[in-house]
Amino acid sequence: MGRGARSLMVDTSKKAVILLSGGLDSATVLAMAQADGYDCYTLGFDYGQRHDSELRAALRVVAAQGTHEHKVIRLNLDAIGGSALTDGDIQVPEEATSDGEIPVTYVPARNTVFLSIALGYAEVIGANHLFIGANAVDYSGYPDCRPEFIQAFERLANVATKAGVEGAGIHIHAPLMTMTKGDIVTVGTALGVDYGLTITCYQADDHGGACGRCEACRLRKAGFEDAGIADPTKYS
Q: What is the pLDDT of residue 7?
């Protein structure tokens, strides 16, 4: 996002932790939070994912959008596997998932783990707001991308933390929840997000080239088409 597009007034009393993967959605969430005046601290995870080029994409987004130093937490979710994104023996599907079916790209408990660590980081830096790019419209059927999950986690956060019990409380924001991918692209473009810096592909190559075939690529491509905006994605 161009620096001129960000809110000129950053309220340091509105500290927020932004889960930033390096993908289209999280880059948009960061831009939206900045435009609303939040003082943003970005957090990413090296969790054993096969598409680790997204980690480099997150650094590019932070450099362009001007936040505090980006923090990366290392986890070993590949030690338990169970997902095409963390287990090399499970192939990333290139066909659409059937309605009501949770695809093999779902990483067991990923958003629960990520938000839990973000919650601890928020308490350390004195932030009362957490932002996540969960979406219940153009998504792949993941159970931890639904409003019910976000609401339940916020309730948990406010009974499990000092900030919730003694402080101003914890607020979990999922501003993309009811937006289509086209809506997201439109909003992010208006805020100056450079989507050419981001990676969405489940199996991007080491140079950040997207496969163009996985479900994440198809949703991203459709989003740019629906928004009527040129797709800057680099395909391998």
A: 46
